[in-house]
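EI: anyone free to look at a 160-residue chain?
SC: sure, send it
EI:
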Amino acid sequence: MNTNLNRRSLLAGAIGAPFLAGLAPGAHADEYSGLTDLNLSDDEMLYYFIKLRSSHDDRVTMGWVDAVNYAFIDGVTHPMYRLLSTTIRQMRKVNDSLYKSVSLEVAMYMDIETGELLDKLTMPVTGNVVDVPLYRAGPTHMEMTVRSEDTNDLTKHQET
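SC: here you go
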């Protein structure tokens, strides 16, 4: 079986997985048993999502990730690399239903044991060795909304 993995997919999965796990039904039932379900409008949901990611007042904010990334293939967990990543972002409110952002991202892929920067990575299962280039993306311009008829693809202006 030949599985093609790219760095962006791995990064997106690494960043998104903890959030998705926390949303699973019953994931934190014991901790939050006294809370009632939230009944947020789309605009309120967007407001709080933006508040978690950035700022509502045009300030430049920073977020970071220090994590170990894994591949899950046919029920087997394969440790891949340690990820150190930072995103610098500025959000601007257009209206209650739309925010625009510009961001710059830098990521470093490191050996889990030694902490050394990786220049090669061996893929699980296939054993293929791939190059690990230095990674920087941006500036990336995005629009964030809860509901939209647009289905345009995200286009990065520059990525190295």
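EI: Residues 7-23 form the longest helix (17 residues).
SC: 👍
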